[in-house]
Design a protein that fits this description.
By secondary structure, the chain is mostly helical. It is built from 5 helices and no strands.
Length: 127
């Protein structure tokens, strides 16, 4: 169960931080399950608990997307609809950055500096 503090933190994320949260947690959970299924990692109560907690964080982050015009129901069909368009918009932005742009963005984000000049110029739903 997410604590009120965790919920408040996620609720305050901007759209970019929500994207990175959703994407990173999804990748991590996928990789852990993959490695567990191939015997590279042994499942334990601690790992199971951590994976369940991260899944809850991800689900809560998904619920916040309505603030950015994403139909919350579209997260049930992650390929089509609003969520798919939203995700591809942010994923393409990330993939199109040069190494220098990425280093600059990562530096600003990690120092909690303004990085708004590096974000996509258009909204996901203006394409």
């Amino acid at each position: 169960m997410l604590s009120e503090e965790e919920k408040k933190e996620v609720e305050e994320y901007n759209e970019c931080k929500l994207y990175f949260t959703i994407d990173a947690i999804g990748g991590f959970i996928w990789r852990m399950n993959h490695d567990i299924s191939h015997g590279r990692i042994e499942m334990s109560e601690g790992i199971q608990s951590d994976l369940e907690h991260l899944f809850e964080v991800q689900q809560y982050a998904l619920q916040q997307l309505g603030k950015f015009g994403v139909d919350p129901e579209s997260t049930n069909d992650r390929v089509n609809g609003d969520y798919g368009k939203w995700y591809r918009h942010w994923d393409n932005w990330k993939k199109e950055m040069s190494n220098e742009e990425w280093r600059n963005f990562d530096h600003k984000m990690s120092k909690d500096e303004d990085y708004s000049d590096l974000l996509p110029k258009d909204s996901w739903n203006k394409l």
